[in-house]
């Protein structure tokens, strides 16, 4: 088992509140702090930024809404893990129930519970960033130094052949049989043995999540990291104020004496709270323009559950070790779909199978023989995604409706996925259409053109996401985005957004590596301007 970094024992968790209160003479449970930069969120963006600024000599305070968990508290219990490690217990539900989103809420953010997939966008994506929004120098080759640094820090390497499990092998086998081009993915770990627990927290610290890498880097460089503190609002000014309130662990009794509130004053605020909570925080703080919360990208995702004669046990082994990108670039538009698999455990699988009552029970009896293939779509093919985040009546709300071309690409992907699954030997497929009420038997003669005629209207197809991004997009002018090309909020000095929220288009790849690399570059540029930004040049 990988050791817990010594620095992590300095993370301020609820168990340390009582001693802090006594040592600092804190009154009424309110701790007041000063810093040069306060960072809100500890995921792929916030953790990298905290480490970068702290190493450059900045006085950094990082706050994280979720708790701090290590293998001692990671468990195979899905209900417990989802409640503790995920936002909204694993199901952020869009208004009108048009979309469900998985997103981490813990120290390390989604890097603690993601499936390790390590990719960077193709050039046609970054070229669009340049031509439409003014992003310069983000092509794969131009970003190589940052990407390589990220790869080294979090242990990125190709999945070895002995760890490509039966679930992923459906893509390898079926794709090759059809003349497609399945690829072996890169994962981020050191010492993975294929336990298949990534989504519940790695029990041996093999996955190199942010809480094992960038967070201890930040602490060793002098940063203060506080868990279980939710940012309520940010007040602008020459010196900004961030007010955060205590958020208890839903499955553990809080100590009797805790810090109820933390008030942090700093000249620089960096919002790294993710593409769902970040815009909600800015909106309730009265900060930013009309682009805050708009054009949320989610990589709309649907699942075919293929049923095989042989045992698959989709949860066993590294979650994602194969990908098929043949559908990536439909008609040379830069938009399309790609195929992966998901390691759904029984709780999540049963929630995604679109059956009820006895049909659902009968389907779940075949769970050991199921492979969950997923289609992910690069959303925005119609110019802008029809999705947003809004803070309204004291509540964060997510709105989503798939656009026509994105929906068409999703259906194309489901057809291609079914063909791959049949070529891999599937005997039946459960499709994500509520009006298809039974598994459909399939064989080599099955045709799937009927999928292209299915409706994409709300309620007619099950859509999920694990990749919310781009809701506070960066652009060359406030007419095109919420933050500038340094990721500073238009209209506000020294309030930055540095996480997956800044992308102006859909990524077309799993976001972790892009988020770390892009924000490493942004944080390093900010760090080099320390004297100018802090006004002490």
Automatic annotation (TrEMBL):
InterPro entries: FAD/NAD-bd_sf, GMC_OxRdtase_N, GMC_OxRtase_C
Domain Glucose-methanol-choline oxidoreductase C-terminal: 400-517
Domain spans labelled Glucose-methanol-choline oxidoreductase N-terminal: 84-300
Keywords, alphabetical: FAD, Flavoprotein, Oxidoreductase
GO MF terms, alphabetically ordered: flavin adenine dinucleotide binding; oxidoreductase activity, acting on CH-OH group of donors
Keyword presence, Transferase: no
Tagged with keyword Flavoprotein: yes
PANTHER family: LONG-CHAIN-ALCOHOL OXIDASE (PTHR46056:SF12)
Similarity remark: Belongs to the GMC oxidoreductase family.
Protein name: GMC family oxidoreductase
